[in-house]
Amino acid sequence: MSQEIPVDVLILGGGIQGATLMRALIPEYSVILVDDEFGDAESLHFHGYFSSGWNAANPQAAEIHRAAAQRWHKELATSGVNSRITDFHAALTPDFLKMVEGNWAEAAIPSEEVELPGIFDPDGLPPNRRFRFPGDLIFDGAAAYLSVSEPLRQQIYRGRLASFQLAGSDIERVILDMDGRSCAVKPELVISACGAGNAEVIRQLGVAEEQVQNSQMVRPLHMLLARGPDIPKVSAYLIDLMVMHHPLEEGEGLWILTLNPDVPKFKAGVVDRCIPPEIENDLLCASFKRLASVMPSFAAWAEECQWSVYAGWKTDAPGPNSDPLVHLEYPTPYQLDDFGLKNFLAVWPNHWGLALDVADDAGEWVRSKLKPHHPQPGSNSGLPAGTGSGHTIENGWQSDELLWHSWGEFARQVGYHNE
């Protein structure tokens, strides 16, 4: 093992949360970021849509989402990343409206009760009211991730946490496995921004199992993909089906369809995010049934598209509540917790749109505890070379590894029968 490497802040997790936090700290502090799958972060499973807050569980969360959408739009416009504030249409049930409608006025979220775009027939849906929200954000997640992480790449290292060594309630030493090479780091502060990996980090700290279970909730995310020249340039939420439009090259468009099932299959505690969830054909068929119920031309339109599916893990709100997506027991849509340790902070969920806000809050925590102490580790520190540039950074749903099928072939594969 090489010598012990001192650093002000060690960040575990190289998704958008870790990258934005590193960017916020590195002008003042020495910071290194470690991730075992850089370029395949949970953040790159993201569908590229961020609500302006109309679906938030309480007024404070709604205000945070609204401001975050505007903040990201300004940043991405400056960075030259493809993004747009867009009209988003939603058909919402009376029960859902009871939970969220009062938040809109308190959080200054603009909305208008209008009919859905003409391609949809709301009579095929359960009872609902229809709204248009003009402040939602759609963007290219991979390009945004690259714009944040690329300038920091020399301080981002490929590796994973092997173990912690504690001295009382302080983390004294961190052992990292960096492509088979063991490195010892002596950080002043440690921040875990690992998305679906947070529970594994917390477990290694000897935290009670109940806290580990409640510190991370993940669920499988299935993304149905339809591409072709006739994809409607419309994004909408249809009771439980999210429809997001992305432009592609050569005049094609892409629809990403994600269904929120009645009973999401949450998993608590440690999940190996490197093993994708099994694709559930029943969920895909339910997605098709919902779209067909509200899109009169669905059968003929589907024949003109190419179809695929992408599945990954999605980190959601933490806590023991049985419905953490809606009934939050805390006012903000993210949490920061030190689990009783003096120099450790875990942040979750690893939410794309909220990453800038979390970086602000976590940055204040760092500044309240630490003055710059160590120089940035250099080439003689004992660390291997940083990842540098040149990594392929792409959205999971744009991967060249995806298999595309005609409608007939895809429908047969998943067992869908048009009723």
From TrEMBL:
Q: Which Pfam families match?
A: DAO (PF01266)
Superkingdom of the organism of origin: Bacteria
Q: Where is this region: Disordered?
A: 369-392
Q: Which UniProt keywords apply?
A: Oxidoreductase
**Do you know which SUPFAM superfamilies this protein is assigned to?**
FAD/NAD(P)-binding domain
**FAD dependent oxidoreductase domain spans which residues?**
8-229
Name of the molecule in the record: FAD-dependent oxidoreductase
Q: Which organism is it from?
A: Microbulbifer echini
Specify the taxonomic lineage.
Bacteria, Pseudomonadati, Pseudomonadota, Gammaproteobacteria, Cellvibrionales
